[in-house]
Amino acid sequence: MFCGEKGIDRQYSAPYTPQQNGVAERRNRTLIEAARTMMCEAKLPIFFWAEAVNTACYVQNRVLLNKRHEQTPYQIVYGEKPKVGYFKSFGCPCTVLIQSDVGKFEAKADECYFVGYSANSAYRVYNKTTKVIIEAFNVDWMEDNPTDAGAGPDWIFDYGSLFEGFNFSNVFHNLGEEEDIVVPSSDVRPHVDRASAESSRNATTDIPECSGTRDAPVDSQGPGMSDNVVNANLPVNVSVPDVQVSRINRDHPLSNVVGPVTAGVTTRSRTGHINFCMYSCFISQIEPPNVMVALKDPSWMEAMHNELNQFSKLGVWRLVKRPDDKKVIPTRWLYKNKKDDSGIIVRNKARLIVQGHRQVHGIDYDEVYAPVARLEAIRIFLAVASYLNFTVHQMDVKTAFLYAEMNEEVYVTQPPGFIDEENPDHVYLLDKALYGLHQAPRTWYETLSNHLVENGYTRGVVDQTLFRKRVEEDIIMVQVYVDDIIYGSTNEELCTEFEEIMKKKFEMSDQGEMSFFLALQVKQDESGILIHQEKYVNEILEKFKMKDCKPISTPMASRPLLSADLNGESVSEFHYRSMIGSLMYLTASRPDIMHAVCVCARYQANPKLSHLSAVKRIFRYLKGRPRLGLWYPKNTDFQLYAFTDSDYGGSDLDRKSTTGGCQYLGDRLISWQSKKQHTVSKSTAEAEYVAASAGTSQVVWIQNQLTDYGMEFVNTPIFCDNAAALEIVKNPVQHSKTKHIDIKVHFIRDCFDRELIQLQKVSSDQNVSDIFTKPLPRPNFESCVEGLKMIAFEE
Q1: pTM value?
Q2: Where on the tree of life does the source sit, at the highest rank (predicted)?
């Protein structure tokens, strides 16, 4: 009746067709698998399955991120981040205070096992004495106590019942006398006494009868307890079955670790007591602050093993005696959660680096420079791709620096947490480069560059991170940013050939079509390429607690202008600079905030409350337009042209003017500038002349850059709205109003005479570079944003 009133039509799936309700069925499977893992680790009997499923659901709702919203389900519903500090591992031993009257010499607490969370802000625990599940708040946890079956005299569960309904078999019955058992280090509590294990190798897998002091037999849950009373102050020898020395969760054998390393592996013996169920089901969400924390986490242990295995595979180093006459450089671990373009953690990455700041120039290294692609170069690459109508692909080299041959003799310490027990004083001699070395980027670039040149690619003259190859009428282009590579071709077969060339020498990670590169999100379709940073916008809004701010239409108020405000209230320099730095990187795809950010950046030395308010206004603007990006249409004109502009004495600090400029390839905005001029201009014409000269320098660089693509541009139009500045260029006269101008500014005259550029007059309302020189009112601002070829995309 309720559904009828609300217009809801109930539909039912057919019997035995779970695919008709796929979302719910897949969710059920996830919960069941998590519950199974938790019960296996806790060694609890099968009748606790409902509690395990309920706990798994409770944890996942507060831990797993929703890919669309980048939030946990709890945060989506309640609007706040969940607290997880009270989480405990399923089956954790604990004690609960007895609330009823007890005798003078009776125990004041009952032993229990944690089985879930209550809706009443309490824990659900199974009371071993009363054999019931209760809710309690005053709980004393015994997390270091082993939870294996038969670990104590009061264990009441039948180990065999654990495996009923599970489709796997015991793996411990084939252990032989010769099999090695990993012994935990001295600071970690072992799961089993070795002597007890040796004495019980031939024992059956049945749980032996144990003595108890209070527990009555439980027919449905396990074997009955002996009535013998055991003095709690006397040691109790319990025969332990082989299950004690065979962990159900996976262990890393010594063969997976570089060298005879044991110290790193043995510390994993504690992870089962803490949060094993969390790490078994999910990738670790937390980046460990140091190696000691990482060694306790199986996810990060695996990441470190993978890194060291790669060292062994590539022959990065050799273990040698410590030299007396050479400096040994320390090493350290870095940990990073790798995310996809939606911000979801997809991999835990551990990297061993060298503390390169301890290297000595001339001894440990010499030349260090390695070319790196500019962001303008990346945008030019995408603009050319849209013009030639091909898809851009992306790949990266795994552990790239490890492929670079070392020319110097460099020694490093053994990795923290992975010390060779037989040779603890030895060090490693590097045959290949390591991350952190001063010369590592240069040696890697030379290795990659030589490999591409040997296979027929031509390195750019201006941009040496650009490589291209022509095959008849087709061309393939490759842009390199350290170990990240984007590439595309008018013939997809050339892309396939390039991938094979790279995979022959390096281990590559093929990421398909370019979608996320240097924090730039890229969308490609048949109509064009969109560059945006929506994910980054949301991240910084969250970081600076501006997620719920009120949106505004412009990033900066046109009046009053921002000033030094010497008498204003001071604010935290660290917080202010952090906000400016975050916004600066956002200008890689958001020219609409360029001027506002640059103006606010002028006050980082002594920020005031008024300056902080101006920065927050930029965040409010981003809140309202997070999906604004650059649009590069395909199959359109590819003419190079530019706009320049300047204000006059706009800086209240020193009365210097601000240069603004932007450059296009057809309808594609590829570069823009907003910068305070170095000298004070004596007139508007002089300020505009200086701005036009700066714009000319950028145009000439773009012309040279495009020659590496095989494209020649001359007589590039530069539009300026000041007639006097144009006349100064065309008529190089010497008089009192221009004779003081610095000689470097007259570079524009030389370019004009050589016909590299041509100057054209444009009306002020058509000059889109006006947005880079001053704060504009809303109508003018929106007109300029449209002129910048920026669009807001939909999901």
Answers
A1: 0.64
A2: Eukaryota
